[in-house]
Amino acid sequence: MLEVSLLGSFDIKYKKKPVSIASRPAQTLFAYLILSAGTLHRRERLAGLLWPDSLEETARDNLRHALWRIRKALPAKQKNEYVLTDDLSIAFNAFAEYWLDVSALEKVGDDASADELISVLSAYQGELLPGFYDEWVMLEREHINSVFDHKMARLMSVLQDENRWLDILDWGERWIKLGQKPEPAYRALMSAHAAMGDMSKVAAIYERCVKSLKEFGVEPSEQTKELFQSLKSGKEIPKPVIVSPKSALPEVPSNIPVPLTSFIGREKELKEITRLLSSSRLVTLTGSGGVGKTRLAVQTANDSIKKFKDGVFWVGLVGLSDENLISQEIAQSLNVREVSHELIIETLKTNLKSKDLLIVLDNCEHMIKACAQYVEQLLASCTKLKILATSIEALGIFNETVWQVPSLPLPEMQQSLSLKELQEFASIELFDERASNAKSGFVLDARNANTVAQICRRLDGIPLAIELAAARIKVLSVGEIASRLDDRFSLLTAGSRTAVPRHQTLRATIDWSYDLLIEPERVLLRRLSVFASGFTLESAEEICNQGMKRSDILDLLGHLVDKSLVIVEEVSKNSETRYRLLETIREYGREKLKEIGETEMVYDQHLAYYVRLAQVAEPHIFGEQTARWFTLLDQELDNIRLAIDWSIQHRKMTEAFLLLGSLDYFFFVHGPISEWQECLQHALSMPGGQEKTLARAKALNGLSMLYWADINPLDDQDFREALEIALQLGEKDLAAKALRNLGLFEHLRGNLSKARALLEQSRDIWLELGPPFKLQKSWTLNFLGDVAFSQGDLNQALLFFEQSTAIFREFKDKAFLAYAVRRLAQLAVHRGNPANAILLCRESLLLNMQVNDPRGILACISAFAGIQLSLGRFASAGQLFSAVQNLLSQRALFRLLQIDQLEYDRNLALLKTKLDEKTLARFWSKGMAMTREEAIAFALEETQQ
After folding, report:
1. pLDDT > 90? residue 499
2. What is the residue-wise DSSP string for 160-175?
3. Which among 642, 655, 748 has a CA at the least distance from the CA of 695?
4. CATH number, domain at 560?
5. How far apart are CA 727 and CA 629, in angstroms?
6. Tens-place pLDDT, residues 726-740
């Protein structure tokens, strides 16, 4: 765990070992982020806040460099990254495993015990971030000082109530040493010395108080003066210290059930629930079936026994079907006897009126309304009573604190982790232990650990599902269990015979939740299962509205969220709210959809929606909204894949062609290219797609774009067919695209004169079509510049690039502006102007980062390496070239565009003539160890010199 202390020092430790963030700006940035963990900060706002006196570009460069230093210092390959970033924002991950002294101080409640306060306040070693003088630090420091004084005053009060005079002597002096003018500390010290019979110390403390306050130009308050006079005259005599043998504490009554299996993980969750219980009288744990609500409640109840002098009691409602018996069940659990001619709820109110106790009300969902009514009545009448409830949905009453129980932590799909690192995840630890119990000799090792991780991910980290899967280890191997998860409801039926019926199989668990729904909620849940991943309210309304009022879907969706069947995903500021189903719920919904006979109807609706989305997105992909649309399409990528698969499987070729052809440039940027190229080729080869239609020509042109990006085609058949169809249909814009693609093809093959002629034909058609196609014309101009560059005609290349760049700037087309500006940067190097090349390359990099184009980002790093080479900085050039090679090798199906690759090869060959093999190898190894973010920061820093 990462342990961070900002009070009295700036100190970071990971697994008890120091972590060093070298520069003060990076320390300031880290402190700001962790103090506001979970909050997304816009990059430009952070840069302006932390470097207010710098130019905007300099401030943003400083921010990137500080962020790089933070990432370099923090431990790598964690279950949850500590710092989350995207092109627009930065945040400290509130769900990462970390401890912060400031958070601990702020979170301790006013009803915390003296020992709890002492535990937290012990970490306070002085003011926040001493030696930091930023304006925001000063404001935050003042706030934390007031929080500390408030908690110390509360501690003094509690210690005096408990007559703990020796502790007061210790903590009162600490407060004086750390505080500014803590009069409550002096008053507590006077009372403590009086209780111990030392009146001379009382007078001495009062004199110290007077002297201390005088330094601030004030006198003691009337309260302090009156206390001193009362103690001095003997009018107010605190209870004296009496030393007596410790007597055995009475046993606190409790009926908490004893689990038969060990409790794994959830330490952070237990702390959070305990904290919530300290400040709220009603806490409801919600979550989907099998997520572990009951088990968490059991553990919390056991941990809370010493905190409630009148007991902790368990009330299980799982087998109860008559809501009129709820009050009797509570009374029976608490051993409260019925009184004749009196309602049992009234008897409970009377009996519990002054009791300091905790009631755990387990499984409320099937009688939610009645449970809410009884809980409300008891809490209103019994002021010391607290209730911890578990339910699929919240009780929905005033002052209820609702806490969603999360699934167990899971390793990310793309993470490559060692066996030791995987074992740190509670989900995998749970499978390991339960499988070991089910079959002696089972061992989690390097051979099966990744398969176990896959099982846990497929089961969404749901504890019950993982336990049921682990139980199958008696008859199946880990690999066989993983391969059968597509039929999980038949597989996961090996639950404990002693468990409640709905926990004996995975299907029974989901059935329980499904049966509690009203019919319109069931209809919507079934139809929502069509989504491959997340979805928006709009997409749900468009796709799931058959036979339903569109206006009802929002309310029904809200009900499914309340009942823990739909999850609201976290979204960045200004983004549309997204929802998703857990995979297990999705599979269940698809089964139900098939039973009802609505599968084809709903999937056709889904396909139609995403075809419309692709067509709406197409013109916006090029322009000032590129980044927003790329983000939206990234979020919908799994749904787009599903729509493409459905269209091809069911021979809906027009829809397939429109989807694939409209999003060709998105697929080009957000590979892997081979996936989309195979989809397109498969669709184009289908019998139902052979007709020479506009949609087919669109798809063929889209395929040509992907060829240019990653694949060198053997012939130009697809390009020529697109041109043929366009000419037959009289579609000049499609013909111009086809000619442009043919020109790109000839450029790839090295036929430069032929390429130029084809591109000039394309340009002439765009000119004929006029202003509406000006942006398309700029693409062709840019590719003409590429051909001139390859021919060595640098003046002609410059002319074409400048013309295309002007149009891209006019249309605010960041995606292709980044490409054109990078070409100008490379051209500037060839023309002997490295200073201009640096400025242009920085702009290209920034644009590529804004639209999240990984290919363009690596091409810019490569271009920076070429600039460093031209300046004679061979060490940094070598590091950057090797970083590019390493980052490309990590994405096996990904390469640079042709001209970028030619520039890379030419410059690397030149570098090898400047450095001997041993020296180059030394620089090369440094670059190979860089992440993409480190390479970017290094390139920017080196070009500042």
Report:
1. no
2. HHTT-HHHHHHHHHHH
3. 655
4. 1.10.10.10
5. 31
6. 999 999 999 999 999
